[in-house]
Amino acid sequence: MGATPPPLAPYVGKCTSSCEEELNLSLYLHQVVSGAAHNQEVILSPGFANSFGVMAVNDWTMHATNDSTASIIARAKGMHIQATQTQANGYAWFLPFNMVFEDSSYTINSFRGSTLQVMGIVNDANGEWAIVGGTGKLSMARGTVKFTTVQSSPNIESYKKIDIHAFYTTQPTEKV
Fold first, then answer.
1. How many Å apart are CA 113 and CA 19, to the nearest integer?
2. For 62-79, what is each residue's pLDDT tens digit?
3. Residues 14-50 pLDDT 10s
4. Strand partners, 62
5. 144 vs 22: CA distance, rounded Å
6. Contacts of 123 (CB under 8 A, 6+ apart)
7. Structural domain count of the chain
8. How many angstroms separate the CA atoms of 138 and 168, rounded?
9. Is residue 2 part of a domain?
10. Looking at the domain assignment, is residue 14 inside a domain?
């Protein structure tokens, strides 16, 4: 005789409230390449053509405006890797990073401590990245981040306006 399966909690497989939420949020990503306040650092530079294989770590800040003195809403913590030998414009940076939310006063739902896992490529001033996961209040997120470079001083700093569109799963509440 087979073993009796364990009893399931009454909420397993069912949403007790709205299971999925939608997030639409615009921020400004501030990338500082050089200078005293730089927020990225090259850690590998193999010397190939087109800077192929260059790897840098980043801790870019994200603000409500393109002003570096504004409150930091989130940080893009990760890396970027030069991943082309043939790109016509000479660059194609692959980026995997965690968007870690810090400021709880900016959004209606406090996402402080929650993350979005983002990955994609930068090979032009404008583009799109994939949201491939999330943690905390942004659990199981999926979606896109569209970016537009709004201010750039090559090899010094840039601002990208990022438009986040994501769906995430809220944690079900257990019924007693």
1. 20
2. 999 999 999 999 999 999
3. 555 558 899 999 999 999 999 999 999 999 999 888 7
4. 29, 74
5. 12
6. 84, 87, 89, 91, 92, 93
7. 1
8. 5
9. no
10. no
* Long-range Cβ pairs for the range 110-116 (8 Å, 24+): 110/137, 111/136, 111/137, 111/138, 114/138, 116/141, 116/164, 116/166
Q: What is the pTM for the complete model shown?
A: 0.83
Q: Which domain holds residue 66?
A: 20-169
Residue where the block lists tokens 């979005």? 116
SS3 70: coil
C-alpha of 152 from chain center: 20
> Is residue 150 a part of any domain in this protein?
yes
**20 vs 145: CA distance, rounded Å:** 18
Contacts 24+ apart (CB under 8 A), 52-58: 52/82, 52/83, 52/84, 52/85, 53/81, 53/82, 54/81, 54/82, 55/79, 55/80, 55/81, 55/82, 56/80, 56/81, 58/31, 58/97
Look at residue 68 and tell me if it is in a domain: yes
Q: Is 136 in a helix, a strand, or coil?
A: helix
Record the tokens describing residue 79, joined without a space. 């890396």
What is the domain-level CATH number for residue 113? Answer: 2.40.480.10
Token output for 165: 């569109």
